[in-house]
Amino acid sequence: MPDDRRPSRFSVDLFPAARGWIRDAACVGEDPELFFPLIERESEPQVARARAVCHRCRVLLACRRWAVEQGEDVGIWGATTAAQRRAIRRKLFGGPAGQATGKTVRTRRE
Ligand code: SF4
């Protein structure tokens, strides 16, 4: 039986590492397309709308960490664009920034 609370952009089957936090995502019920703007520039209104949802999300840090670790290179995750996540990966791990690192990202709040 499908879980109506599960955001349609997420699937625990596809993202098993997100199992611990995915059900608390604020993007439950939001249009998944909102989080995949054609242009991921800070100044784009769609990016701002997606990030506004993320900023009221209880699992923002877990989501961001997951997206960085997974090398998610498309879409808004944890209020970050793909370019921002690449910069985080470069800063934390060096080397190619567009790929999953397999390394764990630690945040101050976790
Ligand atoms: S931080 Fe944003 S993308 Fe991540 S679960 Fe929360 S609302 Fe969804």
From TrEMBL:
Pfam families: Whib
Domain of life (superkingdom): Bacteria
Signal peptide: none
Domain 4Fe-4S Wbl-type span(s) in chain numbering: 26-87
Known cofactor(s): [4Fe-4S] cluster
Keywords per UniProt: 4Fe-4S, Cytoplasm, Disulfide bond, DNA-binding, Iron, Iron-sulfur, Metal-binding, Transcription, Transcription regulation
UniProt modification remark: The Fe-S cluster can be nitrosylated by nitric oxide (NO).
InterPro entries documented for this protein: 4FE4S_WBL, Whib
Record's cofactor remark: Binds 1 [4Fe-4S] cluster per subunit. Following nitrosylation of the [4Fe-4S] cluster binds 1 [4Fe-8(NO)] cluster per subunit.
Record: residues binding [4Fe-4S] cluster: C27, C54, C57, C63
Localization annotation: Cytoplasm
Family in the record: Belongs to the WhiB family.
Role description: Acts as a transcriptional regulator. Probably redox-responsive. The apo- but not holo-form probably binds DNA.
Protein name: Transcriptional regulator WhiB
Organism: Streptomyces cathayae
